[in-house]
Amino acid sequence: MITISLCMIVKNEEEVLARCLDSVKDYVDEINIVDTGSTDTTVEIAKQYTDRVFFFEWTGNFAQARNESFKYATQDYILYLDADDVILEEDQQKLAQLKETLDPAVDSVSMYYNAGVDAFGNITLRYRRNRLIKRTRNFRWVGDVHNYLQVYGNVINSDVAITHKSTEHAVGRNLAIYQRKKERGDTFSTRDYFYYGNELRENNHLEDAIEAYNQAVAQETGWVEDKFYACIFRADCYRSLDKSDQELASLLESIRFTKSPRPEASSRIGDYFKRKKEFRHAIVWYELAIAAKPDANQWSFSYPAYSTWYPHLQLCVCYDMLGDSQKAYYHNEEARSYRPEDPSVIHNQKYLTKKLGLDSLTTSATD
């Protein structure tokens, strides 16, 4: 059976660190924690779990700090987590089984990263990351902010998931790092432009975000997935700026990179036509979103809502507006299977049940 070193970088994580370590401590053989300047009780909490607590002066570069943490690993494989990550009970069992059965010839194991979960327990954002890596391969982190491991060789995909449970978002921190990078005159890759655009969008600098996404799309090289989502998020910016023609053009351009429409594009195009009250056109796109089959091996972002409850809820509204209460009821029930306590779903169920034979209401379905 392989052995595992847990490697983490932390700073002022007293609210979440114990929760993280409690979820993983029984499945690793060594815990290495590198503190980058905590002023709260993070270090004291870390020392309750391990005597391998180290210190590294923060340089503003996440890759440097993560590479520093890897230096202290002594076991066969390295597992890395952030302090606001947890391994849920089901995934703990999967990790234990993986540890018992993993072929030592494997260089890296990818795991799901459930980066968001809604109030009803549905995953809102998921993607894969190289998460368990062979120590002797000396894989390195690269990138200032949204860094990644440069991994190659024998890589396998697992069904283990790491779940992110953040308590707050550090608004502006990552944006400042990218802006310093720009001021230094550093060369931006497609990935850099894409994530810079994301930071600008999240901080409501929408025009600047659009320009960054334009740069990402225009690059001759780069991951096609980054270009796809650059189109999607650029469309979101245009929608917020009430520029619907540019929004639709950006959504349609995303298909140039994926060859067929994905749920994240199809549902948004459905929204475009629904806002214009062109319900029959909207239905076509929402149905496309539902028909798309999830790819368990997809590495890029996946937003499951856009192929599950969300298009069903919108189809309920569209069919209701077209006078087809039976289909409206069907799609609301499909949405209810994912979000049984959603107020909109509950309202629709009551409204449509009465409309279909018991009573009539003057209100309509809601999304």
Walk me through the structure.
By secondary structure, the protein is α/β, with parallel strands linked by helices. It folds into three domains: 4-164, Spore Coat Polysaccharide Biosynthesis Protein SpsA, Chain A; 173-259, Serine Threonine Protein Phosphatase 5, Tetratricopeptide repeat, CATH 1.25.40; 277-297 and 308-367, Serine Threonine Protein Phosphatase 5, Tetratricopeptide repeat. The chain has 14 helices and ten strands. The longest helix is centred in the middle third of the chain and has 17 residues, at 224-240. The protein is globular, with a radius of gyration of 23 Å.
**The CATH fourth-level homologous superfamily of the largest domain:** Spore Coat Polysaccharide Biosynthesis Protein SpsA, Chain A
Major sheet summary line: 8 strands, mixed
Please tell me the CATH architecture of the largest domain by its name.
Alpha-Beta Complex
Structural class by secondary-structure content? alpha/beta
Element-level helix/strand string: EHEHEHEEHEEEEEHHHHHHHHHH
Return the CATH topology of the largest domain: Spore Coat Polysaccharide Biosynthesis Protein SpsA, Chain A
Assign an overall shape. globular
Flag low-confidence runs. Answer: none
User: What proportion of the residues form beta strands (DSSP E)?
Assistant: 15-25%
How many structural domains does the protein architecture include? 3
Our count of helices gives: 14
Radius of gyration: 23 Å
CATH class of the largest domain, named: Alpha Beta
Spatial order of the strands forming the largest sheet:
3-2-1-4-7-6-10-5
What value does the average pLDDT take? 94
Total strand segments: 10
The end-to-end distance, rounded to whole angstroms, is 51 Å
Percentage of residues in helical conformation: 40-55%
